[in-house]
Amino acid sequence: MEGKKKLKTTAPGNRESSIHIPVDQYLNYILIEKGLSDKTVESYSIDLTRFLEFLEKNSVYNLSETDTPIILRYLIALRNAGLSARSRARHLVTLRGFYRFLAHKGMIKHDPVRIIDLPKAGLKLPDVLSIQEIQDLLSLADGSKPQGARDAAMIELLYAAGLRVSELISIKLQDINLEAGFVRVFGKGSKERVVPIGLYAKERIDHYIVNARPRLLKNKMNHFLFVTRLGKPMTRQGFWKLLKRYVLKAGINKNITPHTLRHSFASHLLEGGADLRSVQLMLGHIDISTTQIYTHVAREHLKKMHEKFHPRG
């Protein structure tokens, strides 16, 4: 298409790097070969320049080094910067086209954006608590009292292992291995998984089992780990109420549910640099469209990932 000028991104310090050259090639491709308007190409250029700046801040200087976790961390960074769901969806569309081009040209072996879904209503990442808000929430329960020790252990475990509330209240004594630092969980469809729980959760659960649980049971028998003051298993509604009480006490002005701690677990691990497959395996979250990307990860590897990247590992 004659009359169209080639576009070029400018690398910091007026230097061209291996990370900028493919972007220049892509912009010229969509401008000259695809015939997109100057305004559309300019919009893509702005989005990709912002993405390159993010990569360089994270010491990524070659696009072949980018993977799905770094893309997710970028989307989280956009959300934290205040971008709306619609704007984040536009950025994802830009990255999809760019990485599709790179894969087609043989510049990368795998497309890290392909498996990230774009909801019809636009990309919406779940609300999460900040690490400071998590720390505030976990510091409130009075561990010297039976119910306080139980509450502390439940909230800590929910966040430490990224559990669903249904999984949390279904845990039995035999499912916890404090010595090894794992909890066995039965998720949706009764699928079993084993998740590392970290030092803080181990200490609080141990304190609860030794000092608080017997006082709550009052010589009653119960196989479930978490029980009420009447010695009965904790319910979903019961836990939701106690969590809401602590959220209000912590002064957190967000609509927090038990699932928010599960979202926070995943987000904090990804933001810390954990690999996506390990996080997905710990969550037990299997999506039909992405099932084949998950591979078996040894338990020891999961434990190391958790200890390395979880704020309270």
Explain this structure to me?
The chain has 313 residues and is mainly α. The protein folds into two domains: 93 residues, Orthogonal Bundle (DNA polymerase, domain 1), CATH 1.10.150; 179 residues, hpI Integrase, Chain A (Orthogonal Bundle), CATH 1.10.443.10. Helix content is 53%, strand content 4%. The chain has a three-stranded antiparallel sheet. Strand 2 and strand 3 form a beta hairpin. Helix 6 runs antiparallel to helix 8. The longest helix is centred in the N-terminal third of the chain and has 20 residues. It is elongated, with a radius of gyration of 23 Å. The N terminus is likely disordered.
Based on DSSP secondary structure assignment, what is the total number of beta strands? 3
**Class by helix and strand content?**
mainly alpha
Helicity level, as a percent range? Answer: 40-55%
The CATH architecture assignment of the largest domain turns out to be Orthogonal Bundle
CATH-defined superfamily of the largest domain: Intergrase catalytic core
Reading off the top of the CATH hierarchy, the class of the largest domain is best stated as: Mainly Alpha
Could you tell me how far the N terminus lies from the C terminus, measured between alpha carbons in angstroms? Answer: 57 Å
**Number of helical stretches of at least 4 residues:** 12
Find the CATH topology of the largest domain: hpI Integrase, Chain A
Number of domains: 2
Radius of gyration: 23 Å
**Biggest sheet: strand arrangement:** 1-2-3
Unreliable sequence segments: 1-16, 119-124, 287-299
Major sheet: size, sense and barrel closure?
Answer: 3 strands, antiparallel
Strand content: under 5%
